[in-house]
From TrEMBL, chain A:
The UniProt record lists the keyword Oxidoreductase: yes
Gene3D superfamilies in UniProt: FAD/NAD(P)-binding domain (3.50.50.60)
Keyword Oxidoreductase: yes
Domain Glucose-methanol-choline oxidoreductase N-terminal: 103-327
Domain FAD dependent oxidoreductase: 27-67
Domain Glucose-methanol-choline oxidoreductase C-terminal: residue ranges: 412-530
InterPro entries: FAD-dep_OxRdtase (IPR006076), FAD/NAD-bd_sf (IPR036188), GMC_OxRdtase_N (IPR000172), GMC_OxRtase_C (IPR007867), MIP_CS (IPR022357), P2Ox-like (IPR051473)
Region (Disordered): 1-25
Listed cofactors: FAD
Keywords in alphabetical order: FAD, Flavoprotein, Oxidoreductase
Protein name: Choline dehydrogenase
TrEMBL record, chain B:
Protein name according to UniProt: Gluconate 2-dehydrogenase subunit 3
Region (Disordered): 176-201
Any single Pfam family the record assigns to this protein: Gluconate_2-dh3
Amino acid sequence: MAETGTPADEDGGVGDGVDRTPSPRADVCVVGSGPAGALVAHRLAEAGADVVILEAGPRFDFSRRAAQMETHLRAGMENPWEMGGERDAYTTAGRHYPLNAARVKGVGGTTLHWQGMVMRLHERDFEMRSRHRVGADWPLSYDDLKPHYREAETAFGVAGALDNPYAPPRDEPFPLPAFPPSHSDSIFAEACESLGLDMHSVPNARNSEPYDGRAPCQGFGTCKPVCPSGAKYTAESHVDKAVAAGARLVDRAPVQRLEHDDAGERVERAVYATPDGAEHVQSARRFVVACGGVENARLLLLSRSETYPDGLANTSGAVGRYFMDHLFAGVGGRVDRRTRQNHVGFNTSECHQFYDDDSPVNGLKLEFLNYAGPSPVIDATHAETWGDELLGQLRESYGTHLTMGALVEQLPRAENRITLDPSRTDDHGNPVPHVEWSLDSETRRALRRANEIQRRVFDELDATVDWVVGPENTGPAYHQMGTTRMGSDPESSVVDAEMRAHDLSNLWVVGSSVFPTGGAMNPTLTIAALSLRAASAIESSM
Amino acid sequence: MKLTRRDAVVALAAVGGVGASSVAARFDAPRAGDGDWDGAGADASAASADLLDVMDAAAAAVFPSDVDGRRTFVERYVVGRTEDRASYREGLTETAAELDAIARDWRDAAFADLSVETRDEILRGLGVETADPEPDGTVSERIRFYVVNDLLYAFYSTPTGGRLVGIENPVGYPGGTESYQRATMPDAGADGTGEEEETDG
């Protein structure tokens, strides 16, 4: 691909001379190039498969990453990842869900703007129905996924330590040493020790030393949404490896629908569009849907047919249902000492002590933030003065802030769902995703519990409590899960334990949409582990 | 506090500019009545001052008063960072020219020849302190975007600006992963940020 001299009508109207016409029938067509799709594509290309990756968004040139950071920091500039507009339109009902703040369309997907926190789920997360009579059991156990977790940590280059007494069992150290705790952590540690709270390191998908051709962290402090140094893992890494292994990447090529054979047993084609409005047909022997927690469900729903009138692979009726996210709880305030915040954009300590408790049963993890309070440069470009007066304001606003955060589990509920909104269409005339999302009383109770613990810590520190995010004003952590759930029973789930659709023998769905429950750990390491498991299954099928 | 060569180089690196030279840009011909602003009757023919002069003069008002080495920082930053950003440079040049033309119209002198207090009065008189930073907005919005915020971003994303506030590794600056672990901010030169030996201004 990308030959200079590609006829203008073959680059899809982009004007960059990149060939965006279909390949001959491929072994595998991967839809989406986030971490799920990238890892599958890389693994299969390495195994010798003929792989085509179709990505809806553009490839963002790494040489512009520093300018994108400026875009993020300075007032009045655009979204660095260009989300929004008709391409990304959506509607909501119930509690508002800010979908376009929660995802990125581009090569690398949402890892382009992610925070990069990578914990394994706990053993109980796979057995919530059996253990607690809530949610659903996964069709696989922690032990089944453990080797894939290890592979995923190696793929990402996770920096971590073995000091977390609440972590699930593991057999090996992390690939990279953990980032040391922050000065801010040491302040929290005094209070936590008094209160009997255990602090420990937190695994980061961020280079603490050079790894896999990428630099160590340079301390820009802008991990989310832009890492200019390349130290933070993005799935661009495995897209590049896949291409080096022979895969073909077509960007700016949103898949409009999948089409199946007459019997409804196999997917035959992916119909994708290019910016000039033309539609193209990519045929393949196997298809992997890897478009993210909302678009996975949407693509299946857009692919409805006479055989599957409710959506492709949706005999169960579960496609789009059981939409979940993690809820944020937090307390912020100030202390009478320097807290040294906003040097880096990631956290170095957490507390998983309450994760496995059963009252409330929702998972809960606590975070100690290293980026509490304002950043001087961001405040400066938003201030309504300058000179010495501005300096005085910045000196007053910076320096003594502390924040504790928490993620709280939301259990799956059928009424929380993604559907198609026929009243509004995207830039290609397709119905946009409609997000119906609400909170239940148990989730609210877990949020209150998180706030109670956080307030105890702040009281112990003699800190002011300037704000609280709890049950009344919580928001999502931008982890969309559950909309194509995995399970053993085709009557109640969309994919099996290898993430193959129950309804179609050559269709796999990967990503957090397959999670039957979400736990309270950031999902991307589990996305990666599951994708590597799916890749093994697909490879075995070839 | 002194702005250092390291500050300027880092400010350049942070926006992707490379190979900063010391060649001062000259104004392109300004466009009188450009944009939505129509109050001052900017005189195109009078606006022939050096871009660097205007930006350095603006920096004298926008930066804190106790800063040395300012002109060298602005020279490297303004010239260097716009070399590879043609549209941004065009907007910066035109906006600085308009600011200069306004000064000549209102105060009969080039912006750079006015006192710091008078420059501050002109900026505030234009409503720049409360203007939204808009690259395609009114002249006040463009001055906020291209002049004031450009300078504030450069200053407070480098250690010299950060240190005045209490952070030697401010957001936007690649100051490594040691500083977040420290309890206190070391003196300049002791932490690899803002080394005095690199000072040239």
